[in-house]
Design a protein that fits this description.
Length: about 70
Amino acid sequence: MMDYFIAFIIIIVVVFLWDWFEKPKQADKKHYSEEEIALAEFLEKRQEINELFLAAKSELRKFERK
């Protein structure tokens, strides 16, 4: 029973911290135009795709060496 209580408390703390860190981002968006926000989101997605591509390319090279 105590394990469930500890897990519950940890979840509450994580949710609180997540919410606390997300709020400043929303406040910052008020200072930027919609185009700037869209560009920033596009560039973030592009960076994630590039990182995934490089990871996949690295894995393929490992198979080529064998």
